[in-house]
Amino acid sequence: MPLPSIAVDVLVVGAGLAGLRAATGLARCGHDVLLVDRRRALDVAVRTTGIFVRKTLDDFPLPEACLGPPIRRVALYPPGLRRPVVLDSPRDEFRVGDMGPLYLAAARDAEAAGVLLALGTRYEGRDAGVHRLTGPAGPLRVRARFLVGADGARSRVAAELGLDRNRHLLIGAEEVFAVPEHDRTPTFHCVLDPRLAPGYLAWVVDDGRHAHVGVAGYAARFPDGMTTALRRFSATAPGLEAVRRPDDVERRGGPIPVGGLLARIGRADGLLVGDAAGAVSPLTAGGLDPCLRLSDHAVEVLDDALRTGRPPAHYDGAALRARFRGRLAMRRALAAVRTPLVAEAGFALLRTPPGRAAARAVLFGDRSFPDPARVPEAARP
């Protein structure tokens, strides 16, 4: 008996923020879109911390009910947590999204736009141009003019399309729990200690509603494993000294690509968005702003290709990648911090006026993911 099959304009694999954004945009342009995700519910197995920066909040209409209180303060700690460098902004710089409800709201918008959403459905590959899926009802064959990979840092779609894949990865884990109402200033606490978070940071985000306590770093450099590092950090996490950690917490974790936007992220029959494309800041590991902007670019490119019949044009990460050179250099510098002594030396610089100014520029700057429309024509492959 032949397998059930359907035909669509675009098959999007992965219903995270990038996939939902791309699928909804394409459906609103009038195209038939199938969006699949192997999870049976979008509000479980959340991986991102959900920190939205001011530029994202200014430019994208995120649901207010899914955002926590604004944060204006960042506290940077050396090993030992002594004498933090505290930076305050006159503007609201960060808000933490309640990502489960936010995904559900985005999924409702997608379906209202006409997206066919199939959960509990795994992408298996393709044969002779026909994509193979396995869903709750069994195998399914899908014919699609274009395939979009929004399936995370270790993208199966990237491998299927023969595009670049992320090689430079951090691994992160965090615990999320509600905190009692308090009058402490909402603060983003960052700890630079290679014993806790080799090559990156340990963090506490307390916005007055929820606390996020996490660590991230290079998997091979955690001396006793990431789980042990998170447990050790949770016991002394700054900013939560008076908060009782509940027994029942939400746990999140996963790989974080920090090698910068990949060079080859598109071809004639498909492209990558979000973490699959490496659209994550190499320095801060923030990926929510890049994923939204790159997804919008993907919608423009695919809409043009579907309407004209021409292959997707100007969807290549090589020219955009050049805009990440500074942050890639700072990523290499952060990765080189392997001992508390080196971390302390870095904090000596942070305590100087130029060091504080540099930190403010990184944390409170107006930069976002580069606008593909502003990449000069001569720089495009």
Characterization of this structure:
The protein has 381 residues and is α/β, with parallel strands linked by helices. Helix content is 29%, strand content 26%. The chain has 10 helices and 17 strands. The protein has helices at 17-28, 54-59, 99-113, 156-161, 226-236, 288-308, 317-321, 325-335, 340-350, 353-364, and strands at 5-13, 33-37, 51-53, 73-77, 85-88, 94-96, 116-119, 122-127, 130-135, 138-149, 169-178, 187-191, 202-206, 210-217, 250-257, 266-267, 270-272. Strands 1, 2, 7, 8, 9, 10, 16 and 17 form an 8-stranded mixed β-sheet that branches. A 7-stranded mixed β-sheet has the order 5-4-12-13-14-11-15, with helices on both faces. α1 packs parallel to α3 (99-113) and α1 packs parallel to α6. The longest helix is centred in the C-terminal third of the chain and has 21 residues, at 288-308.
Topology (SSEs and partners):
Layout (H helix, E strand, L loop, with lengths): L4 E9 L3 H12 L4 E5 L13 E3 H6 L13 E5 L7 E4 L5 E3 L2 H15 L2 E4 L2 E6 L2 E6 L2 E12 L6 H6 L7 E10 L8 E5 L10 E5 L3 E8 L8 H11 L13 E8 L8 E2 L2 E3 L15 H21 L8 H5 L3 H11 L4 H11 L2 H12 L17
Parallel strand pairs: 1-2, 1-10, 2-7, 4-12, 10-17
Antiparallel strand pairs: 3-6, 4-5, 8-9, 9-10, 11-14, 11-15, 12-13, 13-14, 16-17
Helix pairs in contact: 1-3, 1-6
